[in-house]
TrEMBL record:
InterPro entries referenced in this protein's UniProt entry, alphabetically: DNA-bd_HTH_TetR-type_CS, Homeodomain-like_sf, HTH-type_TetR-like_transc_reg, HTH_TetR
Record's keyword annotation contains DNA-binding: yes
Keywords: DNA-binding
DNA-binding residues: 16-35
Domain of life: Bacteria
Protein name: HTH tetR-type domain-containing protein
One Pfam entry name: TetR_N
Residue span(s) of domain HTH tetR-type: 1-53
Species name: Raoultella planticola (Klebsiella planticola)
GO molecular function: DNA binding
Length: 94
């Protein structure tokens, strides 16, 4: 799925399954064994990224802190997540 994140980040939703399979170093048929359609692959990528972001936002959330501290936690967690995804998409296969 990391290959799909990298290719979609680079080429957008029009990225081909062939380019994703190539980046993942698997045959296209192998990709379709796990994800019967491109739509299902992209949905799984979305769910993975959503869960990853959610985990970071919730981790260490200062529920008893003042509003400003809570917002700053969310901001920092989101920024950290965004940078992590950007670096992973650039370095996938490095």
């Amino acid at each position: 799925m990391e290959a799909a994140v990298a290719i979609v980040a680079q080429s957008g939703l029009s990225a081909t399954t062939a380019s994703i399979a190539k980046r993942a170093e698997v045959a296209v048929g192998t990709l379709f064994t796990y994800f019967p359609t491109k739509e299902q692959l992209l949905n799984e990528v979305y769910l993975m990224l959503k869960q990853d972001m959610s985990d970071l936002l919730v981790s260490g959330y200062p529920k008893d802190a003042d509003f400003r501290t809570q917002i700053m936690h969310i901001w920092r967690a989101y920024t950290e997540w965004s940078l992590k995804i950007r670096m992973e998409s650039r370095c996938s296969g490095c």
